Amino acid sequence: xxxxxxxxxxxxxxxxxxxxxxxxxxxxxxxxxxxxxxxxxxxxxxxxxxxxxxxxxxxxxxxxxxxxxxxxxxxxxxxxxxxxxxxxxxxxxxxxxxxxxxxxxxxxxxxxxxxxxxxxxxxxxxxxxxxxxxxxxxxxxxxxxxxxxxxxxxxxxxxxxxxxxxxxxxxxxxxxxxxxxxxxxxxxxxxxxxxxxxxxxxxxxxxxxxxxxxxxxxxxxxxxxxxxxxxxxxxxxxxxxxxxxxxxxxxxxxxxxxxxxxxxxxxxxxxxxxxxxxxxxxxxxxxxxxxxxxxxxxxxxxxxxxxxxxxxxxxxxxxxxxxxxxxxxxxxxxxxxxxxxxxxxxxxxxxxxxxxxxxxx
Length: 361
Description:
Layout: H1 13-17, H2 36-43, H3 55-60, E1 69-91, E2 104-105, E3 115-117, E4 120-136, E5 139-159, E6 162-187, E7 190-203, E8 210-224, E9 232-244, E10 247-253, H4 254-257, H5 260-264, H6 266-279, H7 283-291, H8 293-301, E11 308-317, E12 321-330, E13 335-344, E14 347-358
Helix pairs in contact: 6-8
């Protein structure tokens, strides 16, 4: 039987993608007048390669454009908060061999969410390979192929008006693939790049891939070596926005969703739930609970880890935007090493990458 995925499996997908928007290199740049001999040599280059289109014109103007083809390897780490809304639950009917669920929203008679969520977080790391091509001196296209590990925690802290703590944790691997495009250009001594990518991500416990869209914008300056004009250091600042497919419907076994410490303290959790059900829940809330929460608590009480729960959720990163600060060292036109950090509110990230470029055909 194919593994099912958990409420938080899908939540961990987007963090895997946050680091995939680092640009392939920079906009074309004109070498300073102190490197007149090098600049003159660029103007005399006879560029016979297919890409970038208009490459001959760029060299003729004295611009030192990057080699058109590249392979970048990225390591990315991130830690951020997650927002969950519109939770729906259903429990497997043991008398139905087709596992037909009755998925219901967890809301009371006034339309208020019956469950409240505390701080939900995802911590992950990934390694991805990104081949790219400068089609024009200002336009880069690329692919993304990656693999990583993700740790996601979802915390329930309220049921009705009663405090109630329950945690779900998932550790899993994630594979990804996607495409992207970057537009770059210069304004005086400053270069600007804007990056968009679209990726499809397949977690270990997920039946279907989820789409994630990332946009990044960066502005920086490149400091060219006085003695070796092909060597430089670039510094930049920027911002990144991530948006993921919000709606998710899936199913999970109790054993996959509930950590061991909750199973070890199941008596206290079940007692808390029964206290709410007997003393605080309204008749309308009990109707919803009997179809959703009560079977789950009974499975917990009986240590029935094979029971299956279906769920539907809307989820998104708490802070869709983050600030960026980065640096790159270009040893020569073949090799670059870069690092970038992201931060804003409860969102933090770190990127380290190596890029090899070549002329192509």
